[in-house]
Design goal:
Radius of gyration: 15 Å
Strand content: 35-45%
Strand order of the largest sheet: 1-2-3-4-7-8-6-5
CATH topology: Sortase, Chain: A
Helix content: under 10%
CATH class: Mainly Beta
Number of strands: 8
CATH architecture: Beta Barrel
Structural class: mainly beta
Order of helices and strands: HEEEEEEHEE
Oligomer: single chain
């Protein structure tokens, strides 16, 4: 698998490969609690991300694909925002919306997702959309995996309800302090929309 110096090192185009499918069983995604699922939202670009349990309140920028086909990441700079993968659904639409953020930003210190791995099932994630709506998600599970075994299908594969994936780097840094060997992934489901 191709590696980037940033937090993303996965190719969503490989979501159907056997290697990606083999790691899918390790992901404990559960249905949201409650009697009725909220209605999906219309497509609207995400503008802000709030995760009260870990003190995140950040703007969101759009990111695409790098030249090597892996997901792009926000720039390595002070106060770098989270990045919504623009080829995924917008948060609240049916499917897995994907938002990435840095755990560290080089010489600038801590990244917006420094404490992402501290989230637990039941924690709340709010995404404010361009049209003024808010998509409120509840964390289902948190997983840390080797980048070599990134669960591409679980992250980018089709689902029949609005879901959210939050991704950052994890694990030990590479030689010379560059790159990380793992990713932390948060899986969440839409709990409310307003």
């Amino acid at each position: 698998m191709t590696q980037l110096s940033g937090c993303a090192a996965h190719n969503p185009a490989t979501a159907g490969t056997a290697a990606a499918q083999s790691s899918l069983a390790a992901v404990p995604v559960t249905a949201p609690s409650g009697s009725a699922a909220p209605r999906p939202l219309a497509r609207s670009v995400p503008e802000r991300l709030e995760i009260p349990a870990i003190g995140v309140d950040t703007p969101i920028m759009a990111v695409g694909l790098g030249p090597d086909g892996t997901v792009g990441v926000p720039p390595i700079e002070a106060n770098a925002p989270a990045g919504w993968y623009q080829y995924s659904p917008t948060p609240g639409q049916v499917g897995p919306a994907v938002i990435l953020g840095h755990v560290t930003v080089g010489q600038y210190g801590d990244g917006v997702f420094l404490h992402l791995a501290r989230l637990a099932a039941g924690d709340r994630v709010v995404v404010v959309l361009q049209d003024g709506a808010s998509a409120v998600f509840t964390v289902d599970s948190v997983q840390t995996v080797s980048k070599a075994r990134f669960p591409t299908s679980a992250v980018y594969g089709s689902v029949d309800r609005p879901e959210l994936r939050l991704i950052t780097c994890a694990g030990p840094r590479g030689a010379g302090g560059t790159g990380y060997s793992e990713n932390t992934i948060v899986y969440a489901s839409l709990a409310d929309a307003s």
